[in-house]
Amino acid sequence: MKFLAEDKLQSLLKELANAAQVVIPARAEDAEGMVSFRAWEPGVEPELDVLLTRQSAKEFIFKQCEEYLTYHYTMEGETGVPEEEEEGSPGEDEDGLEEIAHETLRVEARVEAPPQVLFGLRPCDASGLVQIDNVFSGYGGFYFDPMYNARREATTILAVACAEPRSTCFCTSLGGSPSGTEGVDALFTPVEGGFTVEALTDKGEELVKSSAFVDAEGSQEEAAAKVKEEIEGKVDEAFGLEGVRENLQANFEDTEGWDELASRCISCGTCTYVCPNCYCFNITDHKVETSGERVRTWDNCFNPSYTLETSGHNPRASKRNRFRNRFSHKFWYYPEKYDSLLCSGCGRCITHCPVRIDLREVVREMGSPRVAASGEEA
Amino acid sequence: MRIGVFVCHCGTNIAGTVDSKGIAARAAELKDVVHTQDITYTCSEPGQDAIQEAIQMKGLTRVVVAACSPHMHEVTFRRCVEGAGLNPYLFEMANIREHCSWIHEDYDEATEKAYEIIKMAVAKVRELEPLYANEVEVNKDVLVIGGGVAGIQTALDLADAGLQVTIVEKETTIGGTMAQLDKTFPTLDCSACILTPRMVDCSQHENIEIMAYSEVERVQGYVGNFTVDIRRKASYVDWEKCIGCEICQQKCPAKAPDSFNEDLVETKAIYLPFPQAVPKKAAIQYDYCRWFQEGKCKVCERVCPADAIDYEQEDEYLQREFGAVVMATGLDVFPWEEYYHEYGSGRIPDVISGLQYERMLNASGPTGGHVYRPSTMGKKKEEPEEPKTVVFIQCVGSRDESVGRPYCSSVCCMYTAKQAILTKDHVGMDTDIYVFYIDIRATGKGYEEFIKRAQTEFGVKYVRGRVSKLYESDGKVVVRGADTLLGDQVEVEADLVVLASGITPPEGSGKLAQTINISYDEYGFFTESHPKLRPLETNTAGVFLAGACQSPKDIPTTVAQASGTSSKVLGLLSRDKLKTSPEIAVVDQTRCVSCWKCIEVCPFGAPEKQEQRDGSFKSHVIESVCQGCGICVANCPVNCIALKGFQTDAIIDQIEEALLA
Amino acid sequence: MSERQAEIRELAKAALSEGRVDYFIGWGTGYDNSQIVPVFVRDAGEVDELVWNPLAQHNLSVYLKRKMPESPDAKIGVCVKGCDSRTLVSLLQEELVDPEQIYVVGVPCDGVINRRAVEKEFSGEVVDILFDGGRVTATSRDGESKEFSREDLLFDHCRSCRYPNPLYQDDSAGDPVPEPEGEAGPIWESLEEFEALSTDQKSARLEEVFSTCIRCFACIHVCPVCYCWDQCVCRSRKPELVSQKVEAKENLMFQMIHMFHVAGRCPSCGACDRACPVEIPLYLLHRKMNQELHDMLGFEAGVDVEAKPALQTFDVEDPFGEH
Amino acid sequence: MTEKTETKQSGDTASKDGDRGIKVIGILCNWCSYAGADSAGTARLKQPVDLRIVRTPCTGRIDPIFALKAFEKGADGVLVSGCHPGDCHYAEGNYYARRRLELLDRLIPHLGIEPERFRYTWVSASESKRWQEVVTEFVGKVKQLGPRERRAL
User: What CATH number is given to the structural domain containing D120?
Assistant: First the structure.
């Protein structure tokens, strides 16, 4: 185990910045003073007192909006008086692209993944990335996304163990921990005068070679262990996972129950966009004249076009169904496919929801047997 | 999608400043453009053949023609592509003439701009979709606004052809300005002898209804189906009963201005404008009637043999349906008193307007055709004296920037010559007559000869130059002007000065145009759709023009135009159903959120609430009512109303295209 | 305040027990004492869930937009503050809400406080906020306690509020609060700082502000007068007024579309500002819009049920545009 | 073929090296201002070359977003013109437009766009001279400001 003295932090960041873009949690200068991840510049102090940034760090690997590919048509239409040997007319065919003579299409896809270091994210955010990996990194022979993975590869994750959990934190209820190491390359634990540092991967090992670190003393290691234990205890028990998946399945048709829980929901997408685990996306083309680009943007299950079918039919037309999907996905569909939960208990969806919909409450309600609900109202 | 682009040279009109051939070649690089071609005269027969041939040989599914303004030839080319089996609305014009070659000089700049205009048109044509005109029933009745010679001619032509015509005339009689005239140039035949029989024909024609002393208040609807609100002004005489005996006028004690006689004399508060009036009905001028002003009198009521007087009468509002409207609102004499202070602003009694003089010359006029000096008229004892020296001044309120009338009124030269000749005839060959003129405009048949007669046969002295000042000096009017030919000052002591006051649209023409939704120019003359292609139509389908309301005209031209207009109206109404433009608003009900803003803002009441199968209501636009303005579209928050031909995407794509690179 | 809370509960209880409403929407305590959230009371026995205090910032008329709640024929009881009532009036002007279907309890309001501002006074999490007259006591999870004056914590649009008493209501919870004097029409101080900027600075600031937008659409979903729902043109691909790309320009374009759509109906209730998870000062747009409408036409949105939204009508004599 | 590529290149350079510095979008109503621009052309009234005209049936059809979209896509100026109030071919279109456009006009500076870069006005079909003046004056002002560096819109 290594130790990083508080006053060495800046020099470490500086050193890292030579080889990679370094991203840290920082407080904005403006009136709002929001704490969010952004590129480190000399002198900028990481804001580690505030437990959670407004958004998770997923944006730096799974971009909210990225150019997937660009394409360009070149036309060679004919000019001048038409000659006789021109082949027969295809007539009024709207989507007759292929039959247009002399048109060529050039497609370019660029994978851009400069090395980057994410410093100061919490274990919950780090583990969130692991859930997203499942989706984009060929889990069980499923889809492998080159761009995502290139960026993932080029990224080193330096997590900082939580100091003071919030009342909305519930990682422990999901098997996580304020000092969890899932998806973390090196874990920093705040102790007297600095951090103890555990390298957890090769990337981590590479990092701690830096002269900024010294070997941690025994007392420091003990202190770290103590800190971890304390915080662990400070995280409230939100619910038991026992039977949640089955009960969600059982309560799927409990429309009244869902309606009641969803009644104050305004059906926006805030929860999904601040979530470190949500990964749904949309792909759209933007074309002007002969050139265009295909972009991938975050999508969310409250978005009207999320399940909209070409016919105009939308199987999830109602607020209730969209609401139900979010929780079912996190605690039922996803686990079924990837054998892990799609939630790491950061509680952002609770604190940033405009009407404070409480995921914990929803899981408690719909994750447990509801004989009553279906019984009454008949 | 297979787009063809055809670039016109328009001779040198376009090719003079734009490299038509070059941009045609470049256009072949635009997406979906499979064929481009430059053509010397695209609108010519070979030009149109070339387009049709290319459509067939290249299987084009969209066509762009880069040439003149769509207002010029959109219709032509739509017909052309339709002829080749393409839907006429899969066509777009790129205006590289009026909006490019004609307004720029730099060859490269103009060429580059023209190319961009074509790119925009291509971007738009991509968004277009086939449209199909729908049909509406046509109401075959015609409204003619104005009962002057233009209105009369139009009405008679249409009525003879079997259409029901309604003439709405604001005065109590039809006849208009022509009824005030004495003789007409160049034949010197009597105006009344020509006009009054036609007036009578109107009143007796089974297909013509005359609504005199009435005005059009509101016009709604669209070609083939206009709904018109008409206000019949209160005359305080029951015209059902009035027999036009004129007794009331004789006995009425209250004097009132006589507009028919151009206020040379006075008439009575209850009056008939002139003996041959049609309809020959009396009316009370409210502001001058003793009963209305002082609450006593009622003489007319007592003397009326037909018991027709009705002091309680009020304006009457009627609503009528028509298929077409003809504007024949005629003219006014330019109000020279307000503008020509150097001519005494009307304070010199012996300075009068041409039309006033016309009344004086008229045998049925206030002086029974005798020419007098107004200053000597209406005196108890003395006889009014005839003028020995008469001066005519032309272009008063015409061709005069300083009074905001740069245009030529086109009739003054001729009527001045006529009046000069008639003066000699009425007063005597020894009368001294001067005509101050700028140029003589005598372009009609027999006109120039007529002027010559005035000069040679009748010895009228023509002085080329403007009159700078008129003033009174011991009983004479001193006319000071310049003779630009001799190049010196001229001064004439005249007994009578007649101003050839020009033609201006009647007061309120602008407002009327607004009521009917037709465009008008800065003076108030109504604007024709196109000076050469559609000179009798307005930009509003179903509304036509006849006579001086469009521009100053003499009687022969007016009558000719009126008949031309009649044939246009007949052409329109010869069909039982009318094709309406399919470029209208259509609601995508799957996206409609039922906020009803469209209903709120539509000026025509086209959108309606339509019940859906699930019992909900969505907006629906009634095809035959929609005029395609797109106000609803701009107000629809979800943009679920598509204005065909001008869809949001089509507009945005053009903008984006124009701003590329 | 507590007296108003009691009134609310009374009126709600009566309405529910007499079956005048199927459910009653008010404010209640969230997951801790520092959180007030909208609550839907369906049973007269549960009216004690209803709470009134200066944290009750939610504009509940948002739940009267069609599809929100889903059951179209439900009879709904709802609490509105002065500003909330103006958005309700806007909905009524457009006949998008049936007065017969709603029971409106007006709550005279002395202004609501900005919880975020409180939170920023602490490094830890605020879990409890207590009110005692003008004093506000906030306590964080680690037990740290701070005192504030209510006045200092008010949203600035509350400070400049001209309609503290609801303009539309069936019953009132408590006596009206004194109306502010002075000439009618909103006050715009909050804009001055921005207005003082140069053209370049403005566009730089807008770029900065709108590059943080995450397109979660909370602003429009929480907006009571924005009701296109799934058909919102900002998400439509045909026509495509705004691209799906998340970047300052497109984000601002999206806000401009929203702004023009609510122009004449938006009274700057501030719901969008409060809902934005990344704290974008949307008032920079909608307050300016309202200011200009006021200068143009002396128009104020949502004050008169009989009036029409400014842009869906016109006056031939409108005193501008002669150029 | 070769000739084509040549013209293409020349075209490219023309637009790239920005010798024609600015781009101005004109959104016109069909009946008055578009026709007015036509008459100006027929009268050969010379005008700056930088204006690109988009035809709409009526100013009532014009969504303020069109103008903002133009700015967003890189326009240096946007000119909207229609029938004089009272003369609308559709009776009321320009009255609605007047309110929307006035609001937009007042918001333009607020959005970090110089006020001179947007104008809405009325030009009738017969006012060819006025059209020439309007275009010349407006484009002149935009030229003075030069191309816009865009940040927000």
Answer: 3.40.50.960
Amino acid type, A330? K
Chains that touch A (3 or more CB pairs under 8 A): B, C
Burial class (CB in 10 A: 0-12, 13-18, 19+), D122: buried
ipTM over 0.85? The verdict is: yes
Cα–Cα distance, A370 to A252 (Å, whole number) = 11
**CB of D41 closer than 8 Å to CB of D112:** no
Q: Where are the alpha helices (DSSP H) in chain A?
A: 9-19, 123-136, 146-153, 202-208, 218-234, 244-250, 255-262, 270-274, 319-328, 334-338, 348-352, 359-366, 371-375
How many domains does chain D divide into? 1
Q: DSSP 3-state assignment of C209?
A: helix
Between residues B271 and C142, the one the model is more confident about: B271
Which residues have a Cβ under 8 Å from the Cβ of A368 and sit 6 or more positions away? A243, A244, A247
Amino acid letter for position B486:
L
Q: Chain A window 332-361: which residues touch C at a Cβ cutoff of 8 Å?
A: 350, 352, 354-356, 358, 360-361
Q: Is D18 in the C-facing interface, judged by CB distances under 8 Å?
A: no
Residue D64 within a domain: yes
* Low-confidence winner among A72-76, A153-157, C187-191 (lowest mean pLDDT): C187-191
Structure tokens at B15: 């090719």
Handedness of CA B477, B480, B483, B487 (dihedral sign): positive
Does a structural domain hold residue D102? yes
User: What pLDDT sits at residue C323?
Assistant: 57
Would you state the pLDDT for residue B579? Answer: 86
CB contact under 8 Å between A77 and B34, yes or no, is: yes
Give the list of residues 6+ apart from residue B243 with CB closer than 8 angstroms, or none.
Answer: B305, B306, B308
Q: Please tell me the distance from the alpha carbon of residue B81 to that of residue B88, in angstroms, as a whole number.
A: 6
Phi first, then psi: give them for residue A336, nearest 5 degrees.
Answer: -60, -40
Report the side by side order of strands in the sheet with A103-108.
A103-108, A65-75, A291-298, A281-288
**Contact assessment for residue B92 and residue B124, using Cβ atoms and an 8 Å cutoff:** yes
- Cβ contacts of D105 within 8 Å, gap of 6 or more: D115, D118, D119, D120
Beta bridge partners of B494: B477
Answer whether residue D48 is part of any domain: yes
Residues of chain B in contact with residue C241, where contact means CB-CB under 8 angstroms, are 639, 648, 652
Phi/psi at B503 (5° precision): -100, 135
CA distance linking residue C15 with residue A135, whole number of Å: 50
The overall average pLDDT reported for chain B is 95
Note whether B59 contacts A88, CB cutoff 8 Å.
Answer: yes
Residue at D5 is within a domain? no
Min Cα separation C66/chain B (Å): 9
Distance from CA of D110 to the nearest CA of B (A): 23
Task: Give the three-state DSSP class for B37.
Answer: strand
The pLDDT of B127-139, averaged and rounded, is 93
Residue-range definition of the domain harbouring residue D76 = 22-145
Mean pLDDT along residues C59-66: 91
Q: What angle do CA A224, A229, A231 make, to 5 degrees?
A: 95
Helical (H) or strand (E) element with B75:
helix B70-83
Burial class of residue C322, CB neighbours in 10 A (0-12, 13-18, 19+):
exposed
Q: Which residues of chain D have pLDDT under 70?
A: 1-20
- The pLDDT score that the predictor gives to residue D13 is 36
Cβ B2–A100 below 8 Å, yes or no? yes
Task: Render pLDDT for B545-594 as a digit per residue (tens, 0 to 9).
Answer: 999 999 999 999 999 999 999 999 999 999 999 888 899 999 999 999 99
Q: Is there a contact between B324 and B541 (Cβ–Cβ < 8 Å)? A: no
**Residue B624: band (very low, low, confident or very high) from pLDDT cuts 50, 70, 90:** confident
